[in-house]
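F.,

This is the one I mentioned.
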C-alpha cells in the first residue's frame, strides 16, 4: 500500500508538471508579425485579432494597415517590437538584420522564424508554421488545402507565354524583378517569361534598358503607380511608351503584396496575370 506522504508528493509533482505544460501550451495573445506574407496568413487563418503590430510590408488585408507598424521587416527596430509587449513574434526568415533578431531573442521574447522562399512548397510550409505557432493546426491544414485547390484551378487556365516585366518604384529609380524573386516565381507559375530572369533580385532599370527588353506585358505595383502619378503619366514615361506592352495596352497594375508576396492569394495572382496576357 502506498504511503500517504508518497501519495501527496506524487500529487504535488503532477500538479507542477501540469502547470508547466499548461504554460508551455498557452496560446499567444499578443503577436507581432514581420513580413507581409506572414501577416496575410495570420489573417487568412482567422487570427488577425491576435496581432498588436506588424511591419511596413504588411499591406493586406486592409485591417493590417490599421495596426501600429514597427518599421520594415528587413530593418527591424528592436525597441519598436519590444514596446508592443508581444508574447510571440512571427518573423519571415528574410527579416533582419541578424543583430536585431539576436537582441530580440536575447531579451527573452518568444520568437518564431517562418520560412519565406519564393516557392509554393515554402508557402505551404509557411502556412503550417504560422498555424502551429498560433496553435490552430486544423485551420492551417484547411487553408493549405484551399490554396492548393485555387492554384490547381488557376493553372488549368491556358497560358499565353508573353515576355513580362514587373516594375517597382521604392521612392528611387525604377526596379525590375529578376530571378530568385517572388514576383519572378509568380510570373513563371502563370506561364509567363520573366524578361529580367537573367538578373538576380531587383535591379534598377533605365529607359534604354526597358526599351531593349521589349516586354510584351508590364506589371506595375499599385503603390508604385500612385507614386509615379498614375497610369497615364506612367505610360508616357521614356522607355515605357515604345514597348510592345504599351502599344498593345498590356500594362496592368497589381496589388503590391499579390505580386510580391507568395501568400494565400497566389491562385488569384496567377489568374490575374493570365487574364492580363490574353
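My design for it:
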Amino acid at each position: 500500500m502506498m504511503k500517504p506522504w508518497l501519495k501527496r508528493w506524487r500529487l504535488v509533482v503532477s500538479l507542477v508538471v501540469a502547470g508547466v505544460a499548461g504554460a508551455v501550451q498557452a496560446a499567444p495573445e499578443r503577436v507581432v508579425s514581420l513580413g507581409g506574407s506572414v501577416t496575410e496568413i495570420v489573417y487568412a487563418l482567422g487570427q488577425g485579432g491576435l496581432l498588436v503590430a506588424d511591419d511596413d510590408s504588411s499591406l493586406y488585408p486592409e485591417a493590417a494597415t490599421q495596426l501600429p507598424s514597427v518599421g520594415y521587416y528587413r530593418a527591424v527596430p528592436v525597441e519598436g517590437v519590444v514596446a508592443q509587449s508581444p508574447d510571440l513574434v512571427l518573423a519571415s526568415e528574410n527579416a533582419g538584420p541578424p543583430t536585431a533578431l539576436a537582441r530580440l531573442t536575447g531579451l527573452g521574447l518568444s520568437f518564431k522564424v517562418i520560412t519565406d522562399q519564393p516557392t509554393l512548397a515554402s508557402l505551404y510550409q509557411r502556412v503550417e508554421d504560422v498555424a502551429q505557432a498560433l496553435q490552430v493546426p486544423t485551420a492551417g491544414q484547411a487553408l493549405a488545402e484551399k490554396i492548393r485547390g485555387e492554384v490547381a484551378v488557376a493553372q488549368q487556365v491556358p497560358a499565353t507565354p508573353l515576355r513580362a516585366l514587373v516594375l517597382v518604384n521604392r521612392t528611387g529609380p525604377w526596379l525590375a524583378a529578376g530571378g530568385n524573386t517572388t514576383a519572378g516565381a509568380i510570373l513563371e507559375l502563370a506561364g509567363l517569361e520573366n524578361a529580367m530572369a537573367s538578373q538576380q533580385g531587383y535591379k534598377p532599370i533605365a529607359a534604354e534598358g526597358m526599351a531593349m527588353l521589349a516586354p510584351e506585358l508590364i506589371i506595375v505595383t499599385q503603390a508604385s503607380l500612385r507614386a509615379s502619378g498614375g497610369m497615364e503619366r506612367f505610360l508616357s514615361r521614356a522607355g515605357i511608351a515604345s514597348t510592345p506592352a504599351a502599344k498593345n495596352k498590356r500594362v496592368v497594375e497589381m496589388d503590391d503584396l499579390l505580386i510580391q508576396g507568395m501568400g494565400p492569394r497566389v491562385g488569384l495572382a496567377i489568374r490575374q496575370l493570365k487574364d492580363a496576357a490574353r
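The first helix runs from residue 4 to 25.

Talk soon.
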